[in-house]
Amino acid sequence: MRRKLLRPFLPLLALLASGFAAAQPVALEDCRISAGPGMPSMEARCATLSRPLDPSGEVEGEIELRVAVAPALDLEPEPDPLVPIAGGPGQGSVQFFLSHAGAFERVRRNRDILLVDQRGTGESATMDCEFDDDIVEGQYSIELTIEYTESCLARLPHDPRFFTTSVAVEDLEAVRQALGYGPLNLYGVSYGSRVAQHFARRYPESTRTMIVDGVVPPQKAIGPEIATESQKAVEDILARCIEDANCGERFPDIDQTFRRVLQILDDSPVEIEVPHPNTGRPEPLTFGRNEFAAAIRLLA
Predict the structure, then answer these.
(1) What is the reported pTM?
(2) Which fold would CATH assign to domain 24-127+163-213?
(3) What pairing do the DSSP bridges indicate for beta strands 113-116 and 62-70?
(4) pLDDT digits (tens, 9 = 90+) for 249-267
(5) Is 157 exposed, middle or buried (0-12, 13-18, 19+ CB in 10 A)?
(6) How is the chain split into domains, by residue range?
(7) H or E element in which residue 198 lies
(8) For residues 86 and 98, is the Cβ–Cβ distance under 8 A?
């Protein structure tokens, strides 16, 4: 009889239990963090936090989150850390922070930088598949892309249903509790701006400030419109140049020139040398239409 009475409340009890588990303190230890091989490292304080794979408790299993704190330089820092949230989705926050550490130095003078690799990224239950460059370059047919995607899903080490933005913000709140921090200062870039918005909406009492950079509105699906919106941005830039007297005079027939360059690179990619981002040594690169398109998209 007691079991029947308790049964409707089991999901709630499991959720509360997961919350209590998340609130258990975690000890940070000295460590060094790096953005990858050949990249400079930084002294930090690190920990691993165990989290339920399914926060509702309906599916068993645990994953481990990578947590790192780049301590403030001030011996008496402010109590509220800055939390950089990486974009993608797919990039880990530790790698993102270290790739742009200089931009955060003024903040770090008197605030900790709290870094949490979102589940599925960095060193937090990574969910990666090896991929063929031809997929990235759009050389696969739709049928082959679907086949590859299904094969990738079947090989993933964890159930992807629990690797969502909603679950990720629960993880971040659990980290905040485990480390004993008060309200957080969130900095989200690109997809990270969506995570920051979601966290602030769900945990307003745990959010002190929020900075969103390269905003991705929550209502927009990430992916389907990237190509069409990028193309529209380029066409708008060319149109503004044509309409502007000074720009039009300096770059006559810029729209036709742009299409001609695309066609040339499509027919005959050129071989160039670019400095390696880590070593600075020049390395050969085949530069064709796809590389040109990627460069233009980032510049736009």
Answers:
(1) 0.74
(2) Rossmann fold (3.40.50)
(3) antiparallel
(4) 999 999 999 999 999 999 9
(5) exposed
(6) 24-127+163-213, 226-299
(7) helix 191-202
(8) no
* Torsion 42-47-48-50 (CA) sign: negative
Report the alpha-carbon distance of residue 78 to residue 209 in Å, rounded.
14
Instruction: Give pLDDT tens digits for 69-93.
Output: 999 999 899 999 999 999 988 899 9
Q: Report d(CA 97, CA 112) in Å as an integer.
A: 13
Which pairs count as long-range contacts for 8-12, CB under 8 Å and 24+ apart, including other chains? 10/57, 11/56, 11/57, 11/58
CB 111 within 8 A of CB 120: no
Task: Report cis status (omega within 30 of 0) of the bond before 89.
Answer: yes
- Tokens 């679907």 locate to 146
Q: What is the mean pLDDT of residues 217-241?
A: 86
Distance, CA of 157 to CA of 244 (rounded, Å)? 54
The alpha carbon dihedral of 124, 192, 67, 166 has a sign of negative
Strand order in the sheet with 113-116: 29-34, 41-52, 62-70, 113-116, 82-85, 184-189, 207-213
pLDDT tier, 124 (very low <50, low <70, confident <90, very high otherwise) = very high
Beta bridge partners of residue 65, listed in sequence order? 49
3-state secondary structure of 186: strand
